């Protein structure tokens, strides 16, 4: 493995660790503020972190003009807002580890939803989807075939997140990736801020109490990790990157255990293992092609 590929792998692993441990920050933040307030604050910080990078880093001129960037960012930002809010609501009612694994199902949902726009789905993807569904059953479905409330919200988040990935995949070849990211983060912050002002009791003293969690989630999870992903994927094939980033789920479970003292029953641990296997299997054919 050459140095460029090794650096790309290292950056992707760092991003996976940041995103995985970010679930702990999101759980801790919910002890002080409500979901919309937390979402507005973290994405505002993410946009601020990206701003100097957007202004200073030289990049190839994009095909899209400024107004086209804004239109695509508005659509992507609206979808991202829904996904982030569903995840933030769900994480109040589930553990960081379970949230990490269920969110990771977007890796499987992306090719499945791609069928709607004419993309072909391989047998490996179908096998991965079946394994992921079995793992989700073991992890989240209780007696009477009832899924836990928090897990249901996070599962919906994974579906919406997959839609967001498809949108970004469609526009990214023609766009300035960093500018698009910064704009969509700002749009999420504005939408969440307006909704928080309308539907939540925004208390600045409680926001300050959640300051550490907001800083970690906003600066690192949103700002830094996304930038690392963009830089790394210049030198890492998409399927290879997806496999490395799926370790986010494992990091979320370990961080939840170490920091929040969360524990899983044997059935839930087996479910996590089966889900992770499904995520990896769904990417095997793409990895061979890459």
| Model regions low in confidence, pLDDT < 50 over at least 5 residues | none
Number of domain modules:
1
Give the overall form: globular
Straight-line N-to-C gap: 15 Å
Give the helix proportion (percent range).
Answer: over 70%
- Element order: H for helix, E for strand: HHHHHHEEHHHHHHHH
* Beta-strand percent range: under 5%
Strands of the largest sheet, in order across it? 1-2
Explain what the structure shows.
Strand 1 (141-142) and strand 2 (146-147) form a beta hairpin. The model has no long low-confidence stretch (mean pLDDT 86). The protein is mainly α. A two-stranded antiparallel ribbon has the order 1-2. The protein has one domain (3-289). It is 78% helix and 1% strand. The protein has helices at 3-29, 35-56, 66-92, 96-103, 106-114, 123-140, 149-171, 177-199, 204-209, 211-232, 238-245, 248-259, 266-281, 284-289; strands spanning 141-142, 146-147.
In a few lines, what is going on in this structure?
With 290 residues, the chain is mainly α. It has helices spanning 3-29, 35-56, 66-92, 96-103, 106-114, 123-140, 149-171, 177-199, 204-209, 211-232, 238-245, 248-259, 266-281, 284-289; strands spanning 141-142, 146-147. A two-stranded antiparallel ribbon has the order 1-2.
Key descriptive features of the protein:
2 strands, single chain, 290 residues, two-stranded antiparallel ribbon, mainly alpha
List the helices and strands and how they pair.
Layout: H1 3-29, H2 35-56, H3 66-92, H4 96-103, H5 106-114, H6 123-140, E1 141-142, E2 146-147, H7 149-171, H8 177-199, H9 204-209, H10 211-232, H11 238-245, H12 248-259, H13 266-281, H14 284-289
Antiparallel strand pairs: 1-2
């Amino acid at each position: 493995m050459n140095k460029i590929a090794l650096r790309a792998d290292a950056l992707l692993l760092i991003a996976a660790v940041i995103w995985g441990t970010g679930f702990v920050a999101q759980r801790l933040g919910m002890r002080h503020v409500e979901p919309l307030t937390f979402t507005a604050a973290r994405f505002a910080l993410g946009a601020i972190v990206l701003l100097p990078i957007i202004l200073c880093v030289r990049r190839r001129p994009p095909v899209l003009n400024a107004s086209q960037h804004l239109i695509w960012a508005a659509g992507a930002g609206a979808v991202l807002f829904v996904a982030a809010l569903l995840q933030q609501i769900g994480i109040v009612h589930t553990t960081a580890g379970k949230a990490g694994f269920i969110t990771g199902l977007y890796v499987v949902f992306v090719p499945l939803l791609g069928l709607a726009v004419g993309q072909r789905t391989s047998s490996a993807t179908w096998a991965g989807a079946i394994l992921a569904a079995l793992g989700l059953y073991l992890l989240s479905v209780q007696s009477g075939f009832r899924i836990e409330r928090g897990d249901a919200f996070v599962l919906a988040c994974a579906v919406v997140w997959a839609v967001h990935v498809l949108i970004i995949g469609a526009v990214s070849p023609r766009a300035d990736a960093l500018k698009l990211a910064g704009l969509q983060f700002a749009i999420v912050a504005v939408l969440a801020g307006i909704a928080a002002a309308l539907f939540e009791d925004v208390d600045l003293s409680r926001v300050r109490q959640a300051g550490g969690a907001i800083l970690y989630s906003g600066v690192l999870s949103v700002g830094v990790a996304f930038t690392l992903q963009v830089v790394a994927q210049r030198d890492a094939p998409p399927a290879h990157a997806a496999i490395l980033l799926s370790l986010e789920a494992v990091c979320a479970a370990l961080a939840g255990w170490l920091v929040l003292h969360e524990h899983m029953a044997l059935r839930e641990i087996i479910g996590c293992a089966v889900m992770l296997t499904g995520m990896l299997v769904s990417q095997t054919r793409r990895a061979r092609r890459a």
